[in-house]
């Protein structure tokens, strides 16, 4: 059973890091103020404001910020400012055993996907495919905050992950599967294939989402994941949104799912509010979930934080 980090409470300290692309300092400061207004204290990584081209700082420095947050006894949650590009490059510089000994909440999506799944895979830590610092703003939907705090600040169990109203979950292959849930952004996960940090989907529920990719690119991603055995190994599939994904050659995202994934015969759900969409469900990477595509439900079967 994966390690659950201690839950987040009002008054706790949140550590801000920029493990991928840089973010404008004014945005960081404005979003940090939102967290402080919510009752949290903030500590800043040494390189949180850095700008070094595509990535905020050299990989070792960005990794050092993440490690320092795990080491800091004041910090209860580590919150990336954004995803962007370059998160994968910090993985060789992380001490996964030290992280295992100092479990903390860490949340994000997009390029943060590779960090979340690696922390589960190599440190046995439950992580959260949910909000980043950029999402802590006045106009963020209440659904997103409710999902985030339900997963990180309560020990509610079981917890049903429901979409917001008027956004129905839909299932294309009926079935029932139970296992740890892994996954996230398709681009990021495909980039791990053939590396020491390749995602392990054996016996897992695999969920995927994407943004700004034409369906020709989604075709490539699905082909690569299929050839790498990731759909063969998993026990169930959840396809989240493909946000702003352009139709290519008259072929839609749903067309590709029907062509490539439905024939696998595994429990298959689509339309989960995840990642880059307006609405963001909180997916606990590494926690055991039940996927029931006969009833259109995703249920987290265990607490995802500890008291």
From TrEMBL:
| Alphabetized InterPro entries for the sequence | Carboxypeptidase_A_C_sf, Class_I_gatase-like, LdcA_N, Peptidase_S66_N, Peptidase_S66C, S66_fam
> Where is each LD-carboxypeptidase N-terminal domain found?
14-129
Q: Which parts form a coiled-coil structure per UniProt?
A: none
KW Cytoplasm (keyword) present: no
Domain of life of the organism in this record? Bacteria
**Which keywords, in A-to-Z order, does the entry hold?**
Carboxypeptidase, Hydrolase, Protease, Serine protease
Magnesium recorded as keyword: no
Write out the similarity annotation. Belongs to the peptidase S66 family.
Name under which the protein is recorded: LD-carboxypeptidase
């Amino acid at each position: 059973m994966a390690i659950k980090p201690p839950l987040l409470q009002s008054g706790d300290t949140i550590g801000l890091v920029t493990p991928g692309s840089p973010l404008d300092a004014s945005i960081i400061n404005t979003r940090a103020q939102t967290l402080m207004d919510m009752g949290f204290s903030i500590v800043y990584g040494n390189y949180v404001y850095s700008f070094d081209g595509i990535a905020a700082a050299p990989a070792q420095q960005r990794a050092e910020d993440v490690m320092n947050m795990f080491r800091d006894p004041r910090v209860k949650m580590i919150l990336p400012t954004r995803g962007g590009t370059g998160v994968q490059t910090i993985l060789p510089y992380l001490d996964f055993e030290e992280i295992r000994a100092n479990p903390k909440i860490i949340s994000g999506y997009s390029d943060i996907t590779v960090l979340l799944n690696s922390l589960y895979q190599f440190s046995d830590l439950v992580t959260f495919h949910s909000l980043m610092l950029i999402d802590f703003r006045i106009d963020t939907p209440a659904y997103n905050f409710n999902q985030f705090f339900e997963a990180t600040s309560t020990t509610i169990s079981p917890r049903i992950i429901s979409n917001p109203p008027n956004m129905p979950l839909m299932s294309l292959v009926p079935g029932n599967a139970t296992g740890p849930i892994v996954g996230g952004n398709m681009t990021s996960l495909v980039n791990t294939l053939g590396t020491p940090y390749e995602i392990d989907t054996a016996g897992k529920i695999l969920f995927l989402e994407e943004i700004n990719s034409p369906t020709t690119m989604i075709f490539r991603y699905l082909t690569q994941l299929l050839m790498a055995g990731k759909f063969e190994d998993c026990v169930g599939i959840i396809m989240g949104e493909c946000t702003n994904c352009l139709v290519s050659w008259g072929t839609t995202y749903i067309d590709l799912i029907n062509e490539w994934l439905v024939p696998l015969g595994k429990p298959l759900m689509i339309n989960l509010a995840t990642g880059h969409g307006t609405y963001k469900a909180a997916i606990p990477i590494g926690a055991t979930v039940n996927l029931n595509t006969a009833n259109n439900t995703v249920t987290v079967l265990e607490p995802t934080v500890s008291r």
